[in-house]
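Q: What would this chain look like folded?
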Amino acid sequence: METTDAQIDHAGGTPTEQLDPVPRLPFNNPKEREAHIHAFVAWLPKILHEAPGMCWERLPSIVMGYLIHAVTDSPDAVPITLAAGSAMDAMKPKTLYAYCICVTNLLKRLRSHYGMTTLAELGQRSIWDAFVAKRMISTGDLNSLKRYETFASIHLRSYFEELTERQQVM
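A: My prediction, written as structure tokens:
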């Protein structure tokens, strides 16, 4: 069955025609690990292929599947994937998976309900003030904030600090 769907080509960032839809892999089947790696590397945004020190083949399959299926169309696909990559050696697979889901949902919510348009706004107090204004913070929201903080302040900061000056400007 041939269909024509316009999709984003993460290798080059331009729309392409896809004739046959990619079959959905069972990312929870360890016997399919090589297929998971192949699918993930094919999906991985080009800029991240060149990320120094990242061994994407070590990313847990469950996280690969989530990223492919849940963040492909997100404007936050690159930073969420980079955050997952920077934390992959420090977290158990299911924990990393849960963090990815939580941070993805937090960023979606900040964009849709609080007016965030760029990631740079995360460094400004105004977006966080809007998020907490006139309401009691739920346990779920508090957990989302903690997980975001873990990704942003611990894992990503550590990753960037380990890069050489030349790698940081590339």
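Helices lie at 33-43, 46-49, 61-70, 77-87, 93-114, 125-132, 139-162, 165-169.
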